Each structure stands twice: as C-alpha cells, then as structure tokens.
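User: Second chain of the day. Same drill as before.
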Amino acid sequence: MMLLNGRTAVVTGGGRGIGRATAIVLAERGAAVAVWDLDATGAQETAETIKSAGHTAIAVGCDASDPEQITAAAERTRAELGSVGILVNNAGITNYAPFTDLTEESWDRMIQINLKGPFLVTKAFVPEMLAAGHGRIINISSSSAQTGAPALAHYAASKGGVIGLTKALATEFADKGITVNNVPPGFVDTPLLRQGFDPAAVAATMPMKRAGRPEEIAHAVAYLASDEAAYVTGQTLSVNGGRYFV
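Assistant: Same format as last time:
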C-alpha cells in the first residue's frame, strides 16, 4: 500500500460522495485529513468516520469558492494539522439546462464554484508547498468535459477549465516538487449523480455495465497523492468504466 504518513491533506467537498470516499482512503493511508464542505454536518460525519477507525481528521465548514472562508479554513487547518502537502479540489455542483434555457446567472455560478473555487483554494496552499519543495494537487474534473454532454454546457465548460488549469499549473511547478493532476470520473453512483440520472439506466450505457463507486475514484487520487506518483504530472487519469478512451 502506498503510504502517506506525515502528510496533511485537504479534501474539499469531503462531506459526501467522492469527496467522502477520498478523505477516508487518504486517512487510511496515513494522512491527516481536513474535510472541507459547505455542509458542515456532512464534513463532521466524514471526520467522525475517519476518527472512529483510529485515524486523524478534522471537519471544516467552508464554502470553497469564497475567498474569506477559504482563508479562515486554511488557517484553521494549518493550526490543527500542520502544513498542507496534499490538496484535492473536489467540491463542485451540477445542474441540467438545455443551452437555449441556460441563464447567465447559472453559467456564472457554475464557473464560480467549479473553476474559480479550485483556483482560490490552490492559491491558498501553493506557497507552503513551494516552501516545502513538495506538493500534490489533484483536481476532480469530469468525463463530461472530455465527451461533451447535452444540457451541461456550463458544467462541461467549467470542468474543461479545470483540466486546462491542471496542465498549466503542472507545467509551472514541474521543477518545484509539486505535481498537479486531474481525475475525471465517469458516471459514479453518488448523490450528485442521482440528482439527474437513474444509476441502473446509466449502467446500461456503460461498457462495464455498471456505474462507478466513489472509492474507485478515491484510490486513483491516493495514487496521485503518493510518492510513487512523483514523476506523474499534468496528467488526466480517466476513471470512467470505458466511457471515454484517451
């Protein structure tokens, strides 16, 4: 098992779904995990699950697209867990709207949360990663940005931006000990997926004939967070059951 002993990780959107699974897997591998989520109750539930298994975690209520809340959450994380060396930008939203019905307000909100949020959170932690000469940044994007998707122009655009941001930062920090990668999940059985799809119907369209499980994304993230992935940067590690080949 790839161990993360001595590392502190922040997982945004860690209160449920992929974020919760990722926080748990990182903790199981030895990282101290700060579970950030707008839903403070969900974050607390994730942290309690981690602590009940004998690992280290704190819950931090935070809107990961709000600069002031990000600053406060980062300060608390450092004070309680130490310098952050692993960042998982997972927090995000989705909603469905045909392009002709898509409002400017919906577009702006999607970009604010899904793209500007990771920018702001990453800005909060890159300086200490540079000072340490080590860092792992993993962005959760989406296979919808790779394939396109009807009624999801704003979502696909925001997640496509995440992929572009990943590549730009990977290039900028490649010789600084910081790797930056992204994982675009396919259809994963989470509360977010169930807002718009029937998992059984989704499964029928997939080459593997099933939806993904949150922990399958989490294990990919854990690999990218590990020392074993030290020579991997700027990559899109697609975990999608064959939905999209790259």
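Residues 8-229 form a domain with the Rossmann fold fold (CATH 3.40.50.720).

User: Great, on to the next one.
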